[in-house]
Amino acid sequence: MAMATAIPHYTADEVRQFDDPRLRFEVIRGELFVSPAPKIPHQRIVRDLVRLLQDYLEAEHLGEILPGPLEVQFTEDSAVQPDALVMLRDRGPQPTIERLYGPPALVIEVISYSSKRTDRLQKRALYMEEGVPEYWIVDPGLRQIERWRTGDEQPEILRDRLEWRPTEAAPALAIDLVRLFSRSEVH
């Protein structure tokens, strides 16, 4: 007779104890996810998006964007480290010195081979269930961004241009996606 093995249920506090600088440890609804350090094209996309968004957020006095790894804890058993997140000034949760508790205004994940499934399934479900208003899944291989908003059943697929408006009163930020993806390629 085969013995059933219990699947461990991790908490955010337990996962914080894991220590390997080459790996990213995240927990979603108690399930542990481990991913390797990102590669250069991935980091170039993160860098360029952070630069574009920060310039816009500062010019409009709206808030700030922070690149990962920065922990966002939603519940006792769900803490993730998105590639970048936006916090709007005087709206939503504000960070402590260690992490953000609760939903940022925008979460960005740049997928890689090892994170594709987690970013599209578990993280998307977590972000939407926990009240993240907008989630971008950046896919360098397909050269597109999947934009998910609260209540969406399907993503908006963007390949040429992305317009983002964090508040109704704010002017839209336009991002040239063709240029963004071409800048990330290895030279």
CATH homology superfamily: tt1808, chain A
Mean pLDDT: 92
Assembly state: single chain
The percentage helix is 25-40%
As for the CATH topology, it is tt1808, chain A
- Under the CATH scheme, the architecture is Alpha-Beta Complex
Keywords:
single chain, 13 strands, 187 residues, six-stranded mixed β-sheet, tt1808, chain A, alpha+beta, 4 helices, globular
Describe this structure in words.
The protein is an alpha+beta fold and 187 residues long. The chain has one domain: tt1808, chain A, CATH 3.90.1570. 25% of the residues lie in helices and 33% in strands. It is built from four helices and 13 strands. The chain has helices spanning 12-16, 40-59, 116-129, 177-184, and strands spanning 23-28, 31-36, 63-67, 71-75, 78-80, 84-88, 99-101, 106-110, 134-139, 144-149, 156-158, 161-164, 173-176. The strands form four sheets. Strands 3-6-8-9-10-11 form a six-stranded mixed sheet, with helices on both faces. Strands 5-4-7 form a three-stranded mixed sheet, with no helix packed on it. Helix 2 packs across helix 4. The model has no long low-confidence stretch (mean pLDDT 92).
